[in-house]
Design a protein that fits this description.
By secondary structure, the protein is an alpha+beta fold. It is built from three helices and six strands, in the order αββαβαβββ.
Length: 112
């Protein structure tokens, strides 16, 4: 097994340890929420302009198997009962990063 494959396997094991179950389009999906990364991304890439309310990571295979595909910018997602617009989607090493804009539906930092 090459080093990259070992790393990816470890990454997925770690992800499983820290992820939490949320409802995306009324289907349970394991995600890692990262409010700090969202703030950092806004500062570095968007000149401090707030670009979204939620940033989550999930496994590509989870989106494909449970939701039937990877969202695109502009898509609508229901996240834990709140309607959101997908602002940005990135893929890296089998993980998908999604930034959602809640369209005025406010989220608390805990219990997103």
């Amino acid at each position: 097994m090459d080093l990259n494959r070992i790393f990816l396997n470890d990454l997925h094991i770690f992800f499983d340890e820290i992820s939490e179950d949320v409802q995306i389009n009324y289907i349970g999906v394991n995600v890692v929420l990262d409010h700090d990364k969202l703030q950092d991304r806004s500062k570095k890439e968007y000149d401090g302009i707030s670009v979204g309310d939620i940033l989550y990571f999930t496994k590509k295979e989870e989106l494909l198997n449970k939701l039937g595909g990877i969202p695109n910018s502009g898509d609508i997602q229901n996240f834990n009962g709140r309607t959101c617009t997908v602002f940005n989607v990135r893929e890296d090493n089998g993980l998908i990063e999604v930034i959602l804009n809640s369209n005025g539906n406010k989220f608390e930092n805990s219990g997103w």
